[in-house]
Prior knowledge:
Layout: H1 12-19, H2 23-43, H3 48-65, H4 78-99, H5 108-115, H6 126-143, H7 149-159
Helix pairs in contact: 1-2, 2-3, 2-4, 2-6, 3-4
Amino acid sequence: MTSSGSVFRTSPSLLMRVQADDQSAWTRLVEFYAPLVYHWCRRAQLDPEDAADIFQETFRAVAKHIRDFRRDRPSDSFRGWLRTITQNKIRDHFRRLQDEPKAAGGTDANLRMNAAADPISLEEDDAEQSVVNQVLHRVLESIRSEFEERTWTAFRAGAD
Length: 160
């Protein structure tokens, strides 16, 4: 299922709380999306250390620009916006590597950069869908206590 067809949509109330700088909302947002951002970084063939750096840069950019996020069109989504930020941070990373002096004989980073002309494809792969499913499961579990057990059971029965 592609990003635009995914049933997972970030809660507007969570986004409003994040935009209002609610720290518990920020924590929840990062917990939900951390696996997906890290997946995108690793899919772009970043080593774990660089992926961690890009992860931090991505969420720093989200914090700086979250008040600018809007859902003006039906196809607009927080996840798509986050993907674009992550993609741009990855591209910036590879540009910086390209601008660094090259060691004699080339570097692994240069080879990886050349092999990753488009580090994040816009198409969702099976591994990404698995991460999205994990995020969705975590989101649902985080709100489960807000419902009576029979309501939750009915919801789960309708989802299967």
